[in-house]
Amino acid sequence: MKLPLRFAAALFLSLAAVPALAGEWVELFDGKTLDGWTQRNGTATYRVEDKTIVGKTNEGSPNSFLCSDKEYGDFELEFEVKVHDKLNSGVQIRSQTKDTPTGRVNGPQVEIEASGEGGAEAGYIYGEATGRGWLTPEDELKPHKHFKDGQWNKFRVVARGPRIQTWINGKPIADLTDEPIYETHPKGFIGLQVHSIGKGEGPYEVAWRNIRIKELD
């Protein structure tokens, strides 16, 4: 039976409005716009270029964050990232702002940085503005070279309850169980960080693409 055009259109719109169910992958970036994202803190710039989100440093700015409008609790997150060798970056998970919507971004951060000659801490978990520094225990914070400098790197993050696991290019990096951070940050936004830089440095850029998330039951 063929539906009249007006009914078919109404059905399509109603189905499109149904939120994704747990277990379904959802694209966080449409490849064209920054719809669904809001910048918090800092004056770094974010733009869309060649189906990527490109963040660019601004001298004198504090850390900047492009944050998802939606909050997430238990999830699996995947993204690809490429960063300038001299720029530190990261992706916030389950993060919040202090006191007001424009307050300081804080929460667990998945570290992004080039390996360099001696390796680095990419993939480990830092407590951005939590007063705790690294959440990954010091004895597990071992520099490695799984991050490929100057290339696209695929990150995978699984957050379930107090446990956070990360992988870079298929290699397991962090496996953190932290009850205190889960008590204060059981859910929150995803945030793409452009780190502050020193005077006379930069500008540097970091780019993300293929950002998708799957909420877990």
Structure commentary:
This protein has 217 residues and is mainly β. The chain is built from 2 helices and 15 strands. Strands 1, 3, 4, 6, 11, 12, 13 and 15 form an 8-stranded antiparallel beta sheet that branches. The protein has a 7-stranded antiparallel beta sheet with strand order 2-5-14-7-8-9-10, with no helix packed on it.
Largest sheet: 8 strands, antiparallel
- Separation of the first and last Cα atoms: 37 Å
Strand composition percent: 35-45%
Radius of gyration (CA) equals: 18 Å
Order of helices and strands, N to C? Answer: HEEEEEEEEEEEEEHEE
Helix and strand content put the structural class at: mainly beta
Give the helix level as a range of percent: under 10%
Number of helices: 2
Question: Would you spell out the secondary-structure blueprint of this structure?
Answer:
Blueprint: H1 5-16, E1 25-27, E2 37-40, E3 45-49, E4 52-56, E5 64-68, E6 75-83, E7 89-97, E8 105-112, E9 125-128, E10 133-134, E11 153-160, E12 163-168, E13 171-177, H2 179-184, E14 189-194, E15 205-215
Antiparallel strand pairs: 1-15, 2-5, 3-4, 4-15, 5-14, 6-11, 6-15, 7-8, 7-14, 8-9, 9-10, 11-12, 12-13
